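Researcher: Last one for today. Full complex below.
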Amino acid sequence: VNAPFDPGSPSHVDSPIITLLTDFGTADYFVAAMKAVILSVNPHARIVDITHEVAPQDVQEAAFTLLAAYLTFPKGTIHVAVVDPGVGSARSPIVIDAAHQLFVGPDNGIFSYVCERDVPSQIFRITNREFFRQPVSSTFHGRDIFAPVAAALSMGVSPEQLGAPHDGCVRLESLEPKPLKKGGFKAHLLHIDRFGNCVTNITRKHLPNNNAVLAINGKKIDCFKDYFAAEELKKKKRLFAIWGSAGFLEIAAQDRSAAEILKARRGDKVEVKTL
Amino acid sequence: VNAPFDPGSPSHVDSPIITLLTDFGTADYFVAAMKAVILSVNPHARIVDITHEVAPQDVQEAAFTLLAAYLTFPKGTIHVAVVDPGVGSARSPIVIDAAHQLFVGPDNGIFSYVCERDVPSQIFRITNREFFRQPVSSTFHGRDIFAPVAAALSMGVSPEQLGAPHDGCVRLESLEPKPLKKGGFKAHLLHIDRFGNCVTNITRKHLPNNNAVLAINGKKIDCFKDYFAAEELKKKKRLFAIWGSAGFLEIAAQDRSAAEILKARRGDKVEVKTL
Amino acid sequence: VNAPFDPGSPSHVDSPIITLLTDFGTADYFVAAMKAVILSVNPHARIVDITHEVAPQDVQEAAFTLLAAYLTFPKGTIHVAVVDPGVGSARSPIVIDAAHQLFVGPDNGIFSYVCERDVPSQIFRITNREFFRQPVSSTFHGRDIFAPVAAALSMGVSPEQLGAPHDGCVRLESLEPKPLKKGGFKAHLLHIDRFGNCVTNITRKHLPNNNAVLAINGKKIDCFKDYFAAEELKKKKRLFAIWGSAGFLEIAAQDRSAAEILKARRGDKVEVKTL
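Model: Here's the assembly. Have a good evening.
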């Protein structure tokens, strides 16, 4: 579907961007060790942290954050995503070529949402130890496999040099809302952000005209707004729907956390009645 | 007052610094999206995070942190500050030219303290959509307006290309302590730092000789120290005043959080009796 | 023991890495101020944060994190470590040349573990004010001394230009476990990481064959594993020992925080019975 990744494009080779997305937190030495390895291989890599605050081992949260971020990066960007409860075991390290970017990490669903939006042109299993840091530990492939492999890719190594083609990759539950027999559809919360905005899996193609009522946790939301700071809403309309910056419909509240008002958690069901 | 910003100075063009100061936290995709946009426009930008831990929508906290940081940066630095409860509404996006640096963000008071210290030479309202990321969302101007505009400035675009001159800018309450009829003056806490040090709005010009007694929350502080780790103080003198690294007088405590001892919160009044 | 630091090596001069390790947190202006000073002196420095989340004034935690990170960095890296309760007082600012890297910070034990592993070839007391930011505050040597000195080193200034040789440096308690009369040895927890893994001070040279039983806080651990995600262990064997990525034996738990199960805190004793 996509043209294969082009490691020879000048912007890529001159100043490749390598992003990092992990559940390592920022208190330990883990993230610095990955950056050290990358800069040892490619002193000119530009490293951008997406986040390291993914809840420990929460692959779905990582998958969402990567989905929300990757399209803002230029072609040739290399994303390293390491939320890896299976580190050292049989799960495969992979590199995915999709949307003219590369994605490096464990095959455990972390790239699921990206692959659902942008069908990969190629996937390879990473087995070529030539590009690993030695010795390879069994507990920190972020440092010993994924970081040096990403750095190698940023130096012009092609994905096929890393190993054999890999069939498909592990998928999380689809991003698509499910149609209901009685009309409308059933969506859910993909994410709750720092401000308490509740991000659903509903996109504009599902609701091109904003003609809908949402029901979540016993509350109804029938008001759509264009931005957060509008005129005072009537109290009972304090909750509203708004198209968020990641392309999904969000449930928000005026000057407050919608998640708090709704006692919402990720995964909560959202029933959508179209009008 | 200041010479106009010089976009043509070599150090600026070769390796421009763009700082980011937001209330986005570091768990979401927001900060990474801003960096992605900046590096898409200017692959050579050097991005420095000031902080993303400003409490949600706390414009005053952001204004203080920017005040404490900007003078350590070299001429030509471009500061992007986005604490923006009014995003998408009528508040103006602006660029300020002051102290040979540029400041990009919403006109909501976030640049108030900088402008109080360094009178701007120019302010422009940002309206030229040519420099925006398309399409412009109504909820994330950090990514769609402020980041790409800062990147454009770092490439040599001049502030006047962004829009028409803007009259003044929104001001927070002044940083100046207020004289009291009975002598002395009334100050307040601008900030409480990680260590519990309580930063007042008192500068050396107000107390050139350290001859003062401070009163806050029912406690008196009459001891001035030069550094934190001095000889053991008598217990009742555990609290002391010290000139802090941001140029303001701070109230600190030996081996403890002064804020905790004082049950202090930002904004608390400090009465200063000069001797 | 080590060859002296070579400031003239091309990779060092072209794109020197300066790391930062502090207890400043990321909410205040402190870290940004250090970066601003570094980039003012050397616009080409590549700054890598190790962490800023060290608990306030916790020198031992900083020493461990530096120990776990420094060997992943290339030769010529300059590490700035500032956890500095004695700032402004009599403690010495020093630069250490060890393992073909430089270490800049206060002489309070923060470099103790690095020096225990890699005997320094040289240590100098930093007194040459020519390389300081002026005026030097008495509360923020990170910004006014350590950052500009590190930047100067990254520009090719040699450590001996900074001041006179310094005899030894402050040492924390040794990393070495202590032999017990009855056989085996007494170790302790050096660190607890984000995942609740408990890092001991035991290295492979102490237990080359994994033949041991560990006792900590009333629990015994006699199971060694190679990676975290193995087959289900019997419930009572949920805790296991594993060689961690920093080179130390760790106590971990399947899908849970070992520290929580053990109610473990840093410093807790670990008795090791060899079999």
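The two ends of chain B are 36 Å apart (CA to CA). Chain B has a mean pLDDT of 91.
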